[in-house]
Amino acid sequence: MAASRAEALATEQAWLEAAQAFIQETLCAPAKERDVQLTELVIDCVKTVCLSQGRNQGFTLPLSYSFVSVKDLRTQQHLPCCSHLSWSSTAYQDWAQEAGPRGVLLPQEQLLLAGTLTDRSGDLEHECRNGSLYIRDNTGTLGCELIDLDLSWLGHLFLFPSWSYLPPTIKSSGEGHLELWGAPVPVFPLTISPGPLTPIPVLYPETASRLLRHRSKCRDVQPNLAGTLVRLSALVKSQKRAYFVLSLGGSSPAGSHVSVIVQVPAQLVWHRALWPGRAYVLTELRVSKLRGHRYWIWMTGPSSQLLPLKPECVQELELELDGPLLEADPSPPPIPCNPQDKKGPEGLVRDSRLLSYTGTITDVLNRPAGLYELDGQLGLCLAYQHLHGLRRVVRPGVRLELQDVHLLQSVGGGTGRPVLASCLRGAVLLRGFSRQMPETQSSHRAQGASLYEQLVWEHQLGLPLYLWATRALEELASKLCPHMLRHHQFLQHSSPGSPSLGLQILAPTLEVLIPPCCPSRNPQNEILEEPHHCPLQKYARLQTPCSFPTLAALKKEGECRAWDSFDPKTLLPLPEASHLPSCELNQRLAWSWLCLLPSAFHPAPVLLGVLAPSSRKGCLKLQDQSGSLLCLLLADPSQPLTDPRLIGCLVRAERFQLVIERTVRSNFPSWKELSMTGFIQKQQARVYVQFFLADALILSVPRPFFHSASSSTPPQTEPSLPEGPHGGHSRLFLLSHKEALMKRNFCVPPRASSEVPKPTLSFHVSGNWLRGTQRKEGTGWGPPEPMEDENVDQKVLLIFLGSSVRWFEFLHPGQVYRLVAPGPLQTPMLLEEGGSSCISQRPLELAGCASCLTVQDEWRLELESPQDIPEVLGINRALPETSLTDLLSGNSTDSLVSFSAEILSHLRMMPGSTGAIKRCVKLTVALETADCEFPLHLDIYIEDPHLPPPLGLLPGARVYFSQLEKRVSRSHNVYCCFRSSTYVQVLSFPPDTTISAPLPHIYLAELLQGRRAPFRATASCHVVSVFSLQLSWVCAHCTSLCPQGRCTCQSPSCPTQTSISQASIRLLVEDGTAEAVVTCRNHQVAAALGLRPSEWTSLLEFVRGPGRVALQFIGPGAQLESSAKMDEPLTRFLQTLCISFSVLRPIVLSFELKRKPSKIISLEPPRLQRFQCGEFPFLTRVNPRIQLSCLSIQEHPSALRALDPYC
Q1: What angle separates helix 501-513 from helix 463-480, to the nearest 10 degrees?
Q2: Sorting pLDDT into bands at 50, 70 and 90, what band is 1042?
Q3: In the chain, what's the furthest Cα-to-Cα distance?
Q4: What distance, in Å, lies between the first and last C-alpha atoms of the chain?
Q5: N or C: which end of the chain has fewer CB within 10 A?
Q6: How far apart are CA 883 and CA 897, in angstroms?
Q7: Which residues contact 867 (CB under 8 A, 6 or more apart)?
Q8: Which of 1021, 933, 946 has the alpha carbon at shortest distance from 984?
C-alpha cells in the first residue's frame, strides 16, 4: 500500500517537474528568470478544472495529460484531434453520440494547451490587425476560432480546457487552426472594471439619425451611441483596408436604426464579439462621409469602445435639433442594372427574399467555391463574401447563424434545391463547432478558390450562372486532370499574362450570358444603400446553357441513340421493302449512319479534349481521362489540317457533328420479319466527330504538364524540339503526293529476327527536297548545307511506318514541311538524297524518285509557310484534277484519275449479294465539272485492304479523290477503284440540315443532248401504250418462281418458304418533243396501272396461284406466254386494263436515265424511218427512243380535272 502511494507521489512529482519546465520555457517571458508564481498559477488552473469535473479520484492533477506548445501542434500533430480536460471515456462517448452517426468523430488526445489570446499574429505592437484571433506562446502563434468572445479576454494568458486542433488538410497549403469549445480559464484573475461613476450620456438611434442631418450640431462633439444590434454586415477585407458595418436600433423592431462603420484595425475583432439582439454602447463616435458614398455616416475613432448596454449606467443626451435641416432625407437611389435582369430564359425575373436562418452544415459540396449543404435540404453559397478564415472551420456538423441572407428558389442550371446566399450586407456567424473530422481532401479539391472569387468579383456572375459555372469547372477538372493537366494549372487565377485554362473554356459561354457593360460591385453601397441592391437581389431561372460530357459518355450516348433509332422498317419503308429479295434486303441494311448535332441533346454538349494522333490507326483523336474519340478535322472548308503544332492542344468545339456509322450483318428472310431483332447476327458502330477548326477554340497546354491518357500516343508527338547545343538537323521538302494508309509488306533487313514478317501499317509520300540539311542554331535553323549537285533531281520518297504513321493526317499535297531529326545526326547522309532505305531501286524508278528515306519514330514534322521560301513561289500547288474527257475516254493507258465529287450514296456490299464477289463498299458520287450543267454520276469501289474506308466518306460530303484506278465494265460503264496510290481528302462535311432539291422539270428532247442532260429529272408526258407487263411471285431467298407459294428451286430446299411479289411494266411515253420507253418496277407498277393500294393487293393475290403472268403487247393485240391462257379472266382483265384510259393518260413522270452518264459508248445516231400517211409515204430521221427508269408517277393536273365532275 505504502509502495503504491510512494509510486503515485513520484509520478505526480515527475508530472509537476515536466509541467514546470514546459511553463518556464513556453509561457514565461524569455528575458525573465524562473517565474515560480506563473508556474503555480497555471498548475492551479489545471487543478481547478479537474476538481470542477468531480473526478479527482484521489489525484488533483491529470497525470495522463501533458502540455503541448503551439510549435508542437504545428510540427508534430498531423491528424485532427480534440482534447477535453478531465473527460472520462463515458463523457467522450456521450459527446460523440450527440454528433450523430454520420462522419468520423474527432479522436481524443490528452493534451493541455495554454497561451495568450490575442488578435495579433506577431509580437509587434504596430502590426496590422485584421480581426482574426490567435493563441500565442513563446514558440509561435496559431489561429483560432471562438464562438462567444469577451473583448476583455484579449491579451491575457489562459488555460484552454476544451479545444480541437485541425492541421492543414494539404501539405504546404497553410497552417492549422484551433477551435476553442468552452470558455478559457484565465491564469491571472481578470480585472473587472467598475461601472462609471456618473451615467454615460448616450444618443439613441432615432436621435443619432436626426443628428446626421444637423451636422453643424455635431462638429465639435463625439457622442456615444446606444441601442440594440439589429444588423451586422460581413467583415470586408480588401487590399487597402478592412471594415464592417453594424446597425443599432431601438427597442421596437419597426423603429429607426442607424449604421456605424468600424474600420480601425484594433476594433475589427469586435466583429467576433457582436451578437444580434444584444444591446451595446459605442463611445466617442464621429461623423464622416465615405468616398463613393452619397451620405454621411457614423464612424468609430481610435479611442472608441464597445461596451454592453446597462440601463442603469447610461443617460440619454438631450439635444436641441430645431431649425432647418442641412440635408433632406435621402431619396431612394436609382437601381443599377443587374447583369441578369434581361437574361431570363423564360422572361421572368424574380426577387430573392431576405431572411435570417440558423442551421447545421450537412455536406461540403465545393469548398473552394464556397458551396455547402445546409440541414440536408438547402444549398448554401458563401462565395459572395470574403470568408477565408471561416471556410476552414465549415464542415459537416458546424452550426451557422445567417443574418440577412438571400433565399433564391428554382435557380435552374442543374440546381434543384433552394439556395441561401449571403451578400456583404449580411453576416455569417459561427454558433457551433463540428465534432467530426474534416474529410480527407485531395490536392485538386483545394484548388481554384481565387478563380471562383474572380467569377464573382470580376465577372459579376449572378448566383444561377455561378452555380452552373462551378459545376462545369468540376466536370472539366474530372475530364482533364490530372493526366492531361495539373489541377493548379487548370484552376489558377486568371491574369492578363497567365490566363486560367478553365476560364478560357467557359469564356465563350459566359460572354453570351453576361452583358459587357456590367457594373462592378461596390461593397459600401451594397451594405449601406437603401433600397438594398446586390448581385443576389434579382435573379432569373437559368436554362442550362451547355454541358461538358466526357468523351466516353458522349460516345456511349451517340452509340445508344444510333441503335435505338435503328429500325429496318424505317430504313426500308414499305412498299419498296415488300418486293426485295433477302440478299438485297440485308445488303441495304448492312451500312447506315446517323449524324447527331449538339442541338439534338439537352443541354447541348460542348466537345472538349486534347488532340492526339494515333500511332496504331494513323487517325486523329480527342482524349480526356475517360478515353478517346476519333475525330476528323478540317481547318476550313476545302482546307485540310496541316499544322502538327496542334498536337497536344486542348480543343473546344460547340459546333460539330457526332457521326455513328452502323454496320449490321443480318439474315432477314423477307420484309415480314424486319421487326424481329433475332435475325441480326452482328452489329458494330464506328463513332467519331467531325468539325472545322474555325468553329473551335484552340488552347495550348504547356508541354511539361501534358501526359497522354493513352499509351498509344508516344511522347514524340509533341512538336517542340529539344533544347541544347545538339538541337537536331532538319530539311525542307515540298509534298507532291500522298498514298493511302494501309498495311504493306517490307523487305526484312539483314540479320533481322527469324520471325515471319507481317504487313505493317504504313504510307508513302513523294516530294522534292528544297534545300540542303540545316542545323539547329539557338532557337532557329542555320543556313542550309550545300548539296553535291544542284542539277540532280531532288525527288524523294518518304516512308512512314510504325509510330511515324501518326503524321498521316497532317501531310497533304502542295504543303511545305520541315523534317526534323532531333539530337546529333548519327549518319551525315541520313537526310541527304542518297540516304538508305528498306525499299529496292525498282519501285523508286517507277515512282520517279532519286532517293528514299524511312522516317524514324523520333523524327518530327513542322509546317512551313510557302511565302518564306522562294523556291516554292513559282510552283503550282493546286490539287490536280482529270478532265471529263479523259475520265470518260476508253483510253486505258492513263488509268489513274483524280477529281472532286459529292458522295450521293454509300452501300456496303457483302459476298453473295447481287454483283458482289467479295466484301467491298460502293460509293456513288456526283462530279461537278464546268463542262456539264448537271453533275456526272460515277461509282467508286473500295475493297480490302482499304477497308474499313477512311473517316468522312458520308452521303453529302465533298471529297477529293487522287489517283483512283479507272476501269470500264462489260457494259461499257466507267467506274473507279481504290489503289495503294489513292489519296483521299475530305473537302466539306455533309450539311447539318438536308434539303432535298426538287428534280429539274424538262422536255424529253433535252435528254438527247448527251452528257449535258440531267441524270434525274421530271417531265409531263402522256402514256402512249404498254409494251410489256409482268407480275410474279418468287422465292425471297433464291428468287425462283413460286406458284401457289412453293419454291420451284431444284437445289436443296431453301431456308425460307417466304415468297415476295415482283412486277415490271414497260411504257411508251411522249411529250410532243420526243418518245421514251420507261421501265417501272414493283410498287411503281400500281401507279402506272392507276390502281389503288387495295386493288393492287387483290391483283397480286390473283397472280399467286399461277406464280407468273406476263404480257407482251405488239400492235393492237397481245401475245401470251406459257404462264397464262388467253381465256383466263386475269389475262383478259390485264389486257383490257393496259389499253384503257386508266393507263393511257397524262402523267408527271420522275425518272433517271437507264443509260449511266459514265457510259463511254456514244449515243445511237438518228435513223431513217418510213411512215405511211394515207397514200403518201414519208421518210424522215427519227431519234432512238430514250430508255428511262421510273422513280415515281404522279397524276397530271389535267387528268385530275377531267375526273372531277365539278370541273
Answers
A1: 150
A2: confident
A3: 160
A4: 132
A5: N
A6: 9
A7: 873
A8: 946
